[in-house]
Design brief:
- By secondary structure, this protein is α/β, with parallel strands linked by helices.
- The protein folds into 3 domains: 49 residues, no CATH class; 188 residues, Rossmann fold; 47 residues, no CATH class.
- Helices cover 34% and strands 21% of the residues.
- The strands form 2 sheets. A 7-stranded mixed β-sheet has the order 3-2-1-4-5-7-6, sandwiched between helices. Strands 8, 9, 10, 11 and 12 form a 5-stranded antiparallel β-sheet that branches.
- Helix 7 links the parallel strand 2 and strand 3.
- Helix 2 runs antiparallel to helix 3.
- The radius of gyration is 21 Å and the shape is globular.
- It starts with 6 loop residues before the first helix and ends in a 6-residue tail after the last helix.
């Protein structure tokens, strides 16, 4: 987190309208977008997506209705998670347009600030059963085969060069369907392809999914794509497995169960790691972990067991 030392300067650049990702890549001398670059860039952008959404509601509504048409064809969908949920500008309208509302509505993002806005937006739409948490796309704190529908909406986008790692992790937590709405290199024109490469976007999602042997039941240009230079492609993957888990939060490092201790943190008794909960949002990046092997140790019982006396 070396770049965190420059957050004030980065904030000034953002206020001037400069491209934060490009600046961070330059000072880090890296060709690909790092997790740190993506975190910083998106956290400063928090609020901008709701602002855009309020001024372009009809466009967003059409986009979400098109997603809902896909999901409404499926039966027995009890859980859904949006990967890189941001400010929930997609999730809230998608849920509104689903015929059958899943009992478990989840969303995670690398940026805590964006999730703060997401919680409030969902309240505006009277959706009060959603659960948000911070997480890394490559270390999702959920068990294998635990969510019926896992979907993305331009959230894998900035992770060019990491297509295989991203797909494997998303497929791991998927129970039934993986829906990818991401920049489509295959359907872009030459100018769009050049732009995707410049910004470090994913360009090999489809070919990588094929290489991994996933069952792709649909691949096409999506119905709505606001930016012709960044066309949205649809990749719909089906997964069948006999072993299912519940969509409960787990330690991102050990994948062991997390228990709520008071309201301020979650704890894994098996990994001895604790994670803070900030304003009701669990912070589950591995960098947030706190080693606390004796968190549950009762001091008085400890003294008694060791026959410790101070008199």
């Amino acid at each position: 987190m070396e770049k965190f030392k420059q957050l004030q300067k980065i904030k000034d650049l953002y206020d001037k309208g400069e491209n934060i990702i490009q600046y961070l890549k330059k000072i880090g001398n890296n060709k690909l977008n790092s997790i740190e670059d993506i975190l910083i860039s998106y956290d400063f952008q928090a609020g901008s997506y709701i602002n855009y959404y309020s001024k372009n509601y009809n466009i967003k509504d059409k986009y979400c209705k098109a997603i809902s048409k896909i999901i409404n064809k499926f039966e027995n969908i009890n859980s859904i998670v949006e990967v890189g949920v941001g400010e929930a500008t997609t999730l809230n309208l998608l849920i509104k347009n689903l015929k059958n509302k899943p009992s478990n509505i989840l969303g995670f993002d690398i940026s805590w600030s964006r999730l703060k806005f997401a919680k409030e937006l969902m309240k505006d739409f009277c959706i009060n059963n959603s659960k948000f948490f911070t997480a890394n796309l490559f270390e999702i704190p959920l068990l294998d085969n635990s969510v019926d529908i896992v979907y993305t909406s331009h959230s894998i986008e900035p992770n060019g060069g990491k297509e295989e790692e991203a797909l494997k992790e998303l497929y791991r937590i998927t129970k039934k369907y993986l829906i990818l709405l991401e920049p489509s290199f295959e359907f872009a024109n030459d100018e769009g392809k050049k732009r995707m490469k410049k910004h470090g976007y994913v360009t090999k999602l489809y070919s990588t999914a094929l290489k991994l042997g996933y069952k792709i039941i649909e691949h096409r240009l999506f119905d709505y794509s606001p930016n012709p230079l960044n066309p949205t492609g649809l990749i719909l993957i089906e997964k069948k497995t006999k072993y299912h888990n519940k969509p409960n939060l787990v330690c991102p490092i050990s994948k062991t169960e997390l228990s709520k201790i008071k309201s301020s943190f979650l704890y894994s008794e098996k990994s001895f790691l604790a994670y803070p909960v900030l304003e009701g949002i669990p912070c589950l990046l591995k960098e947030n972990s706190i080693l606390a092997a004796h968190l549950l140790t009762d001091y008085e019982k400890f003294k008694k067991s060791k026959n410790i006396k101070f008199s």
